[in-house]
Amino acid sequence: MIPIAIRGIQLTSLVDFPGTVCTTIFFGGCNFRCPWCHNADLVLRPSALPETSPAEVLNLLERRSAWVQAVCITGGEPTLAPDLEEFIRSLKASGFKVKLDTNGSQPDVIARLLAGGLLDYVAMDVKGPPGKYDLLTGTRADLEAIKESIAFIKKSRVAYEFRTTVVPGLLAAEDLPAIGEMLAGARHYVLQQFRPGNTLLDASFRLLPPYSGSTLRALAQKLRPYIEKVEVRE
Q1: What is the C-alpha R_g of the chain?
Q2: Cα dihedral sign, 151-123-4-33
Q3: Nearest Cα to Cα of residue 125 among 153, 164, 158
Q4: Does residue 2 register a pLDDT over 60?
Q5: For 69-93, what is the mean pLDDT?
Q6: CB neighbours (10 Å) of residue 169?
């Protein structure tokens, strides 16, 4: 287990919890090295960022509970945090809805949180087709763990989305059917627009032009035979 701590808070977000105003909590540290990741400091240098204790976060949230009733937990990769379940239990006890963003690498954690009724929404990043997972994550990815997480989430009654960031040069039209087969029968899938920027983990991607919206919509059509609802998020 790698050291994990709360390294950032966005007090109000209108986009991180679909249909709900939320506060977003950023956990530092990650076991993937996706080159297009926008949170390079959280992934590579979490200890350089200010740390906030769970108790401080809970106090802040309770003071704002008249305006915000939901929390998005993201990262980094929050399922690596040894105290994640305890933290979420505290949030739920205070009446907050909880959304978890995850890369799916820790299926046992996801299964336990789902079985405990601790999550109201799960967003799992599916990086690409199985054959490209090592390339896309910059690691030796455990594909069986990824597939287990997908299965747990698909079987749950919790609202969820699987999502893929479509990075030119890394993902192309021919990759989509393999993603569809991996997610077959899922209720909700999102194709996300790649966004260049100065905070990307790999500097060579920081000026890369994204696909056009029309290209993303064409790619989405390739997933619709496999998945109930396919959304494009530009």
Answers
A1: 17
A2: positive
A3: 164
A4: no
A5: 96
A6: 10
Residue holding tokens 């966004």?
195
Pairing mode of beta strands 70-74, 229-233? unpaired
For residues 131 and 136, give the distance between their C-alpha atoms in angstroms, rounded to a whole number: 10
Q: Looking at the DSSP assignment, which residues form a beta bridge with residue 232?
A: 191
In this model, does residue 179 exceed pLDDT 80? Answer: yes
For 30, the token pair is 């990650």
CA–CA distance, 53 with 36 (Å, rounded to integer): 28
- Consecutive H or E run containing 70: strand 70-74
Tell me the residue length of the chain: 234
Confidence of residue 4 (pLDDT cuts 50, 70, 90): confident
Strand 229-233: give its sheet, edge to edge.
6-17, 20-27, 70-74, 97-102, 121-125, 159-166, 188-193, 229-233
- What domains does the chain contain, in order, with CATH numbers? 6-233 (3.20.20.70)
pTM for this model (two decimals): 0.96
The residue with tokens 């350089």 is 48
